[in-house]
Batch of 4 targets.
Target 1
Amino acid sequence: MELLLSGARQLGIALTNGHLAKFRTLRDELIQWNRRTNLTAITDPGEVETKHFLDSLTVVLALPKGFSPSARVIDLGTGPGFPGLPLAIVYPDTHFTLVEATWKKTDFTKHALKALGLTNVTVINERSETLAHQPQHREHYDIVLARALAPMPSLAELTLPLCAIGGIVVALKKGDIAQEVASAEKVTSLMGGRLKETKPVGLQELADGRVLVILEKVGHTPSNYPRRPGIPAGKPLL
Ligand code: SAH
């Protein structure tokens, strides 16, 4: 847990023994379930701690003042709970909604919530395209998170309709993404968004070119977006 601890410290997060105990539980449950059900390609305990847990926590770099307890946060395509679960461990006063289309993954996340005793998380087994047209979710969230969900043009169509005006989308990316970001400029603007910043993570513990792409929501998304499930990823708007 040393790398998680030191990396988190650099992010301005002081992990307590209570946090670390929860991260150990999550790590062990993930590795154990992964033997039966394919949840993640990362199975080495040390890599789970850095590439899943620490990487998830880097989202705080996109929020100058950290998570405000009242912020409404949604994580789209959370898989087995990343980045949402590690953030929910560290920010127990903030409510997180975790959305994932595959029930095998949501089953794990629901189990993990019980094992961790977390009450600040709602898990929804649904496509985000469907959720985005439901009034209780549409343009409702202050912070929309997405890691490894889709390339930026599809990601913009999937995320921005759920983001409230004044809110932000944080996409966790890796490598040289300038071109990918540029290719999403038109669809970002069509969805009522605009590029705020591309922020290198720059943590020694994750020295593999991680970046946060931050979009801000400045206007309403036209009601016909996102398109039907599967279309944003299958036929990206360019
Ligand atoms: N965010 C996790 C998982 C990434 S894999 C992580 O970084 O580890 C992408 C996940 O998104 C898959 O589990 C897939 O089932 C889910 N997904 C893709 N498109 C989706 C959509 N439109 N709605 C909900 N889940 C989606």
Target 2
Amino acid sequence: MSKYAFGIDVGGTSVKLGLLTTEGEVLEKWEIDTDVSDDGKNILPDIAKALKDKMAEKQISADEVAGAGIGLPGPVDEDGFINKAVNLHWDRKFNVEEELSGLLSGMRVKAGNDANVAALGEVWQGAGKGYKEMVMVTLGTGVGGGIIHDGKIVAGADGAGGEIGHLCINPEETISCNCGNCGCLEQYTSATGIVRLLNEELERSDEDSMMRNREITAKDFWECVGKGDKLCLRVAEKFGEYLGLGLSIIANVLNPKVFVIGGGVSRSGELILPYIEKNFKAHVFHACADAKIVRATLGNDAGLIGAAKMVID
Ligand code: ZN
């Protein structure tokens, strides 16, 4: 019986690594730099070396390790193929599981998309614990998503399941999203999206606001919402309208028990939730309306915890 599992969360600047028990306790976590030189060809060998070094340091043998799970910033299909990852300078389609397993002397490796893997972390050890039907929405620089059905990740046919950020919720939009389409959820509810909504509102009226004549960040914006700034309250309503509408569409399709809201924006506090809930209730089909909306609890660790879970049981 294996006692340990490794969780790996690969980002464009650093790789977060974790040594966990198969019960889900994080025994140790550390980071290495992501070396994107030479089309990112050193990334997997660097990770393999880090894990081997850790096993030597802790005197852990291969048969004590259930495997290594790895979350990656790109679409990963059920068989472990990743189809390009821009942030890692990977410009080809290849099987990450086979390649990393080969570098780790045949250790079991499972790969997944980072947002999906974070959702698995939250459903295993975080805000979604105890639920089998859960959807996670990550509000950061962009908007990511992960769907958990029957306790497992829904990766979809092309590994692109759960791309909630690119739901079109405003067909009238004329400005393009990073994906090339217009009117995506991400354009209004990511940190960048919120800043954009706020700037539009500041231009539209000359009403006084605490956010005038200063650098605008999503974090400061939510602080001003908390202080009751009228203009900011209106923008928070708009944010809630878009996200509430988006979640209602997802709820009608998947009927989850809980939505877990993660990412930097969610760290602004509980005050973001009523704006989402109100608009969610306004649009959702009655039989799907009981879904709870809560904040994530694992923070940056959700990725490595979920990654480890992929190789356990
Ligand atoms: Zn988009």
Target 3
Amino acid sequence: MEVVVGTTPGDAARRAAEAVLAGLPTDGDRDPVLGLATGSSPLGLYRELGRAVAEGRVDFSRTHGIALDEYVGLPPGHPEGYRQVLLREVCGVIGLAPERLAVPDGSATDLPSLVAAARAYEERIRQLGGVDVQILGIGANGHLGFNEPGSALTSRTRVKRLSERTRRDNARFFTGLDDVPTHCVTQGLGTILAARRLVLVATGDAKAEAVAAALEGPLSASVPASVLQWHPDTVVCLDEAAASALRNRQYYDDAAAGLPER
Ligand code: F6R
């Protein structure tokens, strides 16, 4: 696990963008697959990727985008549904073709249809050859995707109940708490772990405790993001505030400095 601490949220976003670009395949044998998180944390990273496109350093026109999760029960086209959010905040910004964006289908209202939609989503990821780089944020309660505390560490895409903490945190995107859906379809922790590289971005004091528990606490379903410790290629990009509760900070900085010059 590589832990990179930027001086500012913008610096963390720049480092995260470099980690994403370094993880995408360049051989041209198959189309790259980029896993996309929603929420505030990766917005700077998406802007940095957009800048790399403008500078001619990368082209996402042949890349497939795979969303982490979707709310259950929002009407199609709802502006806070994650398909709409990703069309707005990612496709337009990095030049990803809307027809290459896959989002779990949370539109059904009965469980069997949602279970079928979750299975179909796993199948879609398999058909694409798996995710090359999965971009992630972390919930203040340690959730990853919408895998709330208590999620099985090997879980696959499925319907989950959102915790009240998550619903309160996300109420800022809706007119009020009552409008926040109670359920979602989310990639499981096992699905996330199957991506070839994970890049997590976290900024601000509100994430400090969750980041420390995920990176330095025990691997536990109580802190779903602790599965990052299990993955062989994880890059965690933080700003100073989000890194403030880490105990091994000096080690991460030393490791990030690389081999000594001779
Ligand atoms: C988003 C997602 C969530 C968020 C997390 C942090 O697709 O699955 O895990 O990454 O809730 O949200 P922000 O970045 O808004 O604090």
Target 4
Amino acid sequence: MDFQLNEQETLVRDMAREFAQKELLPRATKHDREETIDPEVFPMLAELGLMGMTIPEEYGGAGMGNAELAIALEELNAACASTGVTVSVHNSLLGSPITKWGTEEQKQTWLPRLASGELIGSYCLTEPNAGSDAAAVATSAVLAPDGSGDWIINGTKIWVTNGGWAGLFLVYVRTNTEASNAKGMSAILVPADTPGLTVGKKEHKTGIRGSSTTEILFENVRVSGAHLLGEVDKGFMIAMDTLDGGRIGIASQAVGIGRACLESSIKYAGEREQFGRPIGAFQAVQFKIADMATRIDAARLLVQRAAWMRDRGERCSLQAAQAKVAASTAANFAADECLQIHGGAGYTDDFHVERLFRDARITEIYEGATDIQKIVISRNLMG
Ligand code: CAA
């Protein structure tokens, strides 16, 4: 057992930290207020290899694993969680499944364009009546009647991260209405410029406001049969396995937000004086900082274990769910305590604290709410 980052992991952490602190942190308030990410950020991310972290080098990616992706995501999210989730979804929910299940043609067509940042990736699972119950997807894909093997897609997806700027969507559709819900879904790659695909309502969110969250509407969207990812009717398994990786990404996001809260609290507690001494001299504040640090460190270790298992090709549904529960709970605890330590100043937008407080909240909701993670955990333990 080794708790030290190796040479490559250390390089990734230092590179991502320098970029995040220099380029993302100064933009984070602007991203939040303007509800978008500065477009020049995407090429910078790609230049550093952050848009193709787990894509093999032969397809233009960085050829790394989930461990390095988690380390990079912690750094990005400690500075700007809107950018952090954009990168997490792009890598874990699109680059990774194409790498794992794509045909050679699909890999050659899409992976270099994702790794270079030419295309942003997105994942369309949730629908108005299929949220936590992901197997209830109703968006349909039927084979074209002309015998061409093309799929024709109709339906509506919601809460689509990267919806407004994605060039490629991985869309989960119902291809079999006779089978049970989970056994009649497929995964299809749909380029954003396919006729009939439109970006619908943009959500105005409590936090991660710079990220793009939209509806995506499909009206007789026709794609070639070559766009099917994996086997027909096996899409639910792809969706769930992909989310195991995505949940490690969101857990990393939570660790990053929590760490930013901790660092801000330590700094403020050393500077702010009351009753003739820095507030950090009071045990009430010291204990808050001790609790924040302990929960964040514990969460990071669970993230690293889940990422390590996934990189070994082992199923990590249990460990990814545990990491997500621990990290999202730690982030919200840290954000709450951080705001309390900053007092009235933290409640204004003079500091990043109120943004961190708002950004932390979503980590307990998306890519499977905490209660869903507890279902995954208990099913893995109890059957
Ligand atoms: N890997 C591989 N296979 C898996 C799997 C995994 N992680 N999880 C389940 N499966 C398989 C099961 O083994 C089972 O196969 P068999 O029938 O052959 O045994 C099949 O899939 C069905 O599994 P379940 O019976 O567990 O399915 P369920 O309908 O009870 O659902 C659930 C389980 C955990 C509740 C699941 O629906 C779930 O995770 N829901 C939450 C969905 C979610 O996280 N949505 C977020 C969308 S993305 C987002 O938030 C926006 C964004 O862009 C960031």
